[in-house]
Amino acid sequence: MKINRKVVAIAAAAAALAAGGAGVAYAVGGDSEEQVSGPTAERAKAAALDAVGGGTVLEVERQDGDGDGVYEVEVERPDGSQIEVHLSGSYEAVGTAADDDVGEGPDDDAEEDSER
User: Cα separation of 7 and 81, whole Å?
Assistant: First the structure.
């Protein structure tokens, strides 16, 4: 069976476009949050716990653009609720928001809005 060069070229172009589209989709909607560790994470944890009055730190990330600040620290409060603490580059709290990674029900957005 003889393969037509034109068919091969079209298939290669389609594959390249598909790969490029997947890359764009990941960049726009993918998990672009960078985990923070070491002394920077320790300072961010301490600042966040101080800002909300205690709890357990679940995660420290570089800010992903959905709030103010440089760092985003997820804290679980003693009552089980979770909150994101947004910190400046000098580890000062600049805002908080209900943790948007919790739950998948239709009422989650209403609960988050009521906490702001």
Answer: 57
Task: Give the predicted TM-score (pTM) of the model.
Answer: 0.57
Q: Are residues 46 and 100 in the same domain?
A: yes
d(CA 68, CA 86): 6
- Which class for 86: exposed (0-12), middle (13-18), buried (19 or more C-beta within 10 A)? buried
Counting other chains too, the contacts that 86-90 makes at CB distance below 8 Å and 24 or more residues apart are 87/44, 87/47, 87/48, 87/51
Higher pLDDT, 98 or 45: 45
Q: What is the mean pLDDT of the chain?
A: 75
Of all residues in the chain, the percent with pLDDT exceeding 90 is 42
Residue 81 has pLDDT above 60, yes or no: yes
Residue 108's domain is classified under what CATH number? 3.30.505.20
**How many angstroms separate the Cα of 24 from the Cα of each of 18, 29, 35, 64?**
10, 8, 21, 17
Which range marks the domain in which residue 14 is found?
1-30
